[in-house]
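User: Predict the full complex structure for these chains.
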Amino acid sequence: MKYKKIPGGICAAEGFMASGAHCGIRNNTSKPDIALIVSSVACHAAAVYTQNKVKGAPIHLTQKHLADGKAKAILCNSGNANTCNPDGPAIAQTCCNLAAEATGLRPEDFIIASTGVIGQPLSTAPFEKGLPKLAAALRREGSTDAADAILTTDTKHKEFAYEFSLGGKTCHIGAIGKGSGMINPNMATMLVFLTTDVAIGSDLLEQALQAEILHSFNQLYIDGDTSTNDMVSILASGLAGNQPIEETSGEYQTFREVLHTICVKMCRALAADGEGATKLLECHVNGAPSGEIARRVAKTVVSSDLCKTAMFGEDANWGRVLCAIGYTEGDFPVDKVSLILKSSAGEVLVCENATHRPFSEEEASRILAEDELQLLIDLQSGTESGTAWGCDLTYDYVKINGDYRT
Amino acid sequence: MKYKKIPGGICAAEGFMASGAHCGIRNNTSKPDIALIVSSVACHAAAVYTQNKVKGAPIHLTQKHLADGKAKAILCNSGNANTCNPDGPAIAQTCCNLAAEATGLRPEDFIIASTGVIGQPLSTAPFEKGLPKLAAALRREGSTDAADAILTTDTKHKEFAYEFSLGGKTCHIGAIGKGSGMINPNMATMLVFLTTDVAIGSDLLEQALQAEILHSFNQLYIDGDTSTNDMVSILASGLAGNQPIEETSGEYQTFREVLHTICVKMCRALAADGEGATKLLECHVNGAPSGEIARRVAKTVVSSDLCKTAMFGEDANWGRVLCAIGYTEGDFPVDKVSLILKSSAGEVLVCENATHRPFSEEEASRILAEDELQLLIDLQSGTESGTAWGCDLTYDYVKINGDYRT
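Assistant: Here is the predicted structure of the two-chain assembly.
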């Protein structure tokens, strides 16, 4: 056992404190809307951002602040994306200034993020009023408060943490994240903040993050819309006291492994809590000619509206899965494809050599009645594999998005 | 007035007869399931096909039959796609043989198409029983019967025809088509059959069709799933008696123009009757640096689940449109984008220079309450334009597809 799951979320790593509260961005006073996360020491930092050409003002400011690979804190609000606002950049700067004043840090120490409606005026009054309160409330047990404050249409907060060992030193990595619509990450993702106490340089930290997201967050699909405000960031305090990680070391492999574990955990939680979702879909592709094709096929399947609605209907309509495999970009054979539908209730082979295989519809229905479904695809044309995560498409997705602003 | 809309659908052009009836592929005896369309003379023919790697058996057989650019008839069934069936190719061949026998034509004279559930066994008994009946029922007034027989989840049949003049000769072009889910054509489309009595060689006919679909059927989006059985075909009987059309002539331009008109008409009808749709969305993009970028932006907007649900909710959530423009593939500026929402109830400018512009929510709601909505985008970065068609995403889409097979 190289690592174990522990409580503490984004504060599990040494040096981090967090808080979150309702500060007045939202009308609903029971929904916290600003989160603050602060490290006791300077951190190496890295982030990946949305590839949307329309970017929220906070994205640009964060890119500027992380240019030197260092940061000490995170400021994130929900309820307003601060995107397509003519004075968005000035607002983001004011928010960092206010946060700096409240915490005794410098404005450029902050990663800043906003999530919510696009193109709505954002007042800085809630920040002015709220930040001193948030700074005073910072604590090691504050992860859940922060995780709650960054949510939009999510139904539950997402926080995870793992403990592992590097060179005899106990290390930690923690994360909070939010979904749950406008999610089809492209070289970046929704909002996920990671912290660790591992000692690692910012270049290697960025390399690890960039490599990781190809296998986790970029393989997550809820509704095909790539947000204007997506970001995954990681802060490394170095307080675990390990020898700084070298790229060629076994320690780097261990760190990558734990990073992957927590990111997959977060992907699964984000997918399961996708807007309106009743089921988590996990698609594994084996036997692919390349890892990229395996990942692409898996993501195409979990992205298909027709596969998503069939899973909602608990209907073993495997032809739709074959159809989605068939329109996946890339050159690979489809004539040997097999498909197994699997859940905690069992598994059933529904297609072999890309053709119908008799199966019990009753058994399939029992399997598909579960909350977590696995679609196991074997292309039988190679040795590579890949995974993607998504959710079913339901009446509630339409309901939530048919009138999001009111 | 270069052309006018006329009745007659796929039989409006000289030489064509059609029929359609329930033959037993479907259990529901009130839903016709096989259509037959026959020309009295040999036709030049062209078709474009789905780019899905998983292709229905009828697609392969039609490609073979059209290799010489000639055909005389169309056989199309609904209720079963004859796709992912181990004996699919043999079944498609048997169906052509039976149709040839019933009509006195040769099997290779047929364009054959199937649409419906993928991966279900298909019996040839309904063809054996039904084709003599269909052949006997062929008539000039048969377009609606055929148009009804090819439908799956469509709520209404689609047939259109236009009359125009070439070199003093009266010419016609007609079409029937079906949607209404699994529609995201890629260099091809759902099932649309076109007929004309124009004299035109098969190479030029194919060139005209290939060029046309870039601006019509490939710009249509219902749910992102590219079908395994998509096809658009055109038969030209030559019975109008015009001088065969040359590529460099004004007649070719006229033919292209009428072809475009009927294809756009069909796209609008297919989009308006998309699965579960309550509204037709038409997105026009102006001021683009290239036609391709204009078309791509328009299609991305009508493809966005969040734009589609907002239109269903009659919510002027323009930030979602900006978001979709922003993740459109390609390099173009987004900082000068403007957006007008328009319908028969009026129009409202909701965004200028990619930022919020105060508007009356009440007025916007009144505009969005209509059945046909236009999203007018100006990128203000060029002179090119493009259009795409789609529909809203509704509860009924989820309902229809949550349990399609039962």
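Chain B has a mean pLDDT of 92.
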